[in-house]
Amino acid sequence: MITHRSNNVQYEVTPPSVEEDLGPQFEFYWTRQKDPHSIRRKLILAKHPEVAKLCGPEWRTKYIASAVVLLQLFIAYGLRNTTVLSFKFLALAYVVGATANQNCFLCIHELSHNLAFRKPLYNKLFAIWVNLPIGVPYSASFQPYHQLHHKFLGDEVLDTDLPTPLEATVLSTLLGKAFFATFQIFFYALRPMMVTSIDMTFIHLLNVLVCLVSDLVLIKLGSANSLWYLILSSFFAGSLHPTAGHFIAEHYLLDPPKHYTQFQDVPPLETYSYYGTLNFFTWNVGYHNEHHDFPFIAWSKLPLLRTIADDFYQPLPKHTSWVRVIVDFIFDENVLMYNRVKRETAKDKSINSKGTKN
């Protein structure tokens, strides 16, 4: 029996009996231990109580997000007579459009935590506005699924950020991982609906209606090419694009342990931060350990949180490049779709629109 101690939290571990390097593990990293974020949150608040004052909405969010939305709609209209497959069209969609739409995706992420307005309804309605450049309705469904991801991190059913066993089995090859990295936007869009059910609400219907009307107006005032610009921007944002590296970087194990005994060993770190320049375009989503520890601290204050609690965050492994994350994910034979920490789910799999179990 080996005892590990970190920040006054003690774990007892039974070492695996096999000594040799077993190579890639074709199984998820199962554990019954609680996720580390709630534990670290309590420790940080005990040592740095001033962190609690960082929680709350950021007033600048609505202005920055609106500027990005208007930029995308302006470019979409400007490309109304440009051939979709032309270099100009594709280059703008990849360089500007994908970066802007990633910004929209992640602004909706901020809004799902009610970090632009104090009233939750205002955040939901504003998220529908930010959804417009994405081209398809997204914001209303994202919030309940994302809240489940936070509340039940690693849960085999309730955390729809996890790949399914079928995905892990079929895609844990070089070509499979390349396919996933290229088309991951579709996996994140379709997987939640196939794994966990949520209640439909008026906000969902409003999201669909507003998005449909916006698309039709854009086609009427511009052309179908204008809508194609938004759709391609969304696709590139969730494909082989530098900012898309955050999808993989946040929770995949890119340096998996060589030995792991299911349900016995201390699970490997399951959340990773990135502190590079791409955070400027992505609402500081790279500060991901910080975000999971304190999901009600807005993007603008996450760097301050890290500074205050540097004694907790400095020792944690981190990524230095989202592009490198994508490359390593695809080409490293030790990195598989299985490289996620997983927990057994609760028996009740019915979830309401607020992200809580019925």
Quaternary structure classification = single chain
Which structural class best describes the helix and strand composition? mainly alpha
Strand fraction band?
5-15%
Number of strands: 6
The gyration radius over C-alpha positions equals 21 Å
User: Termini, distance in Å?
Assistant: 40 Å
User: Roughly what percent helix?
Assistant: 40-55%
- Outline: globular
Strand sequence of the main sheet, in spatial order?
A: 1-2
Q: Give the mean pLDDT.
A: 91
Counting DSSP H or I runs of 4 or more residues, the number of helices is 15
| Tally of distinct domains | 1
Q: Spans of 5+ residues with little confidence (pLDDT < 50)?
A: 1-22
Major sheet, described briefly? 2 strands, antiparallel
Order of helices and strands: EEEHHHHHHHHHHHEHHHEHE
Family: Belongs to the fatty acid desaturase type 1 family. DEGS subfamily.
Domain Sphingolipid delta4-desaturase N-terminal: 23-61
Transmembrane segments: 63-79, 91-109, 121-140, 168-190, 202-221
GO molecular function: sphingolipid delta-4 desaturase activity
